[in-house]
């Protein structure tokens, strides 16, 4: 059973993931062989997560905190990657290698949280945003208390698909599952203020209310205090 929380208090023993990021034509490439998946609901460890360019990936081990649920049919994880024309042959080959390793994991364990998150990452960096959304939504279905899929979906909707209502819903879900997820507060505040959703004044009001909510769960958090001061000065 994977630990799908990013709360450091849940981590018993973690090995740092080795992540190489190659920026080519506006894309980033995550070069990491997926770790061996848990054998199913009785497994006792799972990769620790980290975030690169708004996308959360994983590596290392951590204590189990959530039992996977499986209420919908798994999407087609064997569907080949589709590449944006700006991605060169060398990067395509490396991404394909990562994809094949991820597919192999899912063939052995369709409940692997790590593999579904990685699959979404691979599809996102190749420009298949619909495929990324599908993979992360399925991970969210398997592990509804995890903030990782909802944070990833929030970033996808906010920065790439420009679907602001879905971005708001995703980040609100992250905060509901983990009131200490400061990144989710920051991104949601950005949606309300930088993007002016749903309108400039309404967005500011919602941002200030969200900051107060965040400070109740995270008293004296400097990031939230700074954001409140900036907004009040406007």
UniProtKB/TrEMBL annotation:
<keyword id="KW-1133">Transmembrane helix</keyword>
<keyword id="KW-0812">Transmembrane</keyword>
<feature type="repeat" description="TPR">
    <location>
        <begin position="113"/>
        <end position="146"/>
    </location>
</feature>
<keyword id="KW-0472">Membrane</keyword>
<dbReference type="InterPro" id="IPR019734">
    <property type="entry name" value="TPR_rpt"/>
</dbReference>
<keyword id="KW-0802">TPR repeat</keyword>
<protein>
    <recommendedName>
        <fullName>Outer membrane lipoprotein BamD-like domain-containing protein</fullName>
    </recommendedName>
</protein>
<dbReference type="InterPro" id="IPR011990">
    <property type="entry name" value="TPR-like_helical_dom_sf"/>
</dbReference>
<feature type="transmembrane region" description="Helical">
    <location>
        <begin position="12"/>
        <end position="31"/>
    </location>
</feature>
């Amino acid at each position: 059973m994977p630990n799908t929380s990013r709360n450091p208090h849940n981590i018993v023993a973690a090995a740092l993931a080795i992540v190489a990021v190659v920026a080519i034509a506006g894309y980033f490439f995550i070069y990491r062989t997926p770790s061996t998946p848990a054998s199913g609901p009785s497994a006792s460890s799972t990769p620790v997560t980290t975030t690169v360019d708004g996308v959360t990936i994983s590596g290392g081990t951590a204590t189990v905190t959530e039992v996977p649920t499986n209420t919908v049919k798994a999407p087609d994880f064997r569907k080949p990657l589709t590449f944006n024309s700006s991605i060169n042959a060398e990067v395509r080959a490396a991404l394909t290698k990562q994809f094949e390793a991820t597919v192999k994991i899912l063939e052995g364990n369709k409940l692997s949280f790590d593999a579904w998150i990685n699959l979404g990452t691979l599809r996102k960096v190749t420009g298949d945003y619909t495929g990324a959304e599908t993979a992360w939504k399925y991970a969210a279905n398997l592990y509804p208390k995890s903030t990782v899929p909802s944070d990833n979906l929030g970033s996808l909707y906010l920065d790439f698909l420009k679907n602001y209502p879905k971005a708001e819903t995703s980040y609100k879900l992250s905060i509901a599952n983990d009131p200490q997820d400061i990144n989710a507060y920051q991104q949601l505040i950005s949606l309300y203020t930088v993007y002016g959703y749903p309108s400039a004044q309404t967005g500011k009001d919602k941002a200030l209310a969200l900051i107060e909510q965040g400070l109740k769960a995270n008293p004296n958090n400097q990031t939230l205090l700074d954001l409140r001061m900036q907004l009040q000065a406007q």
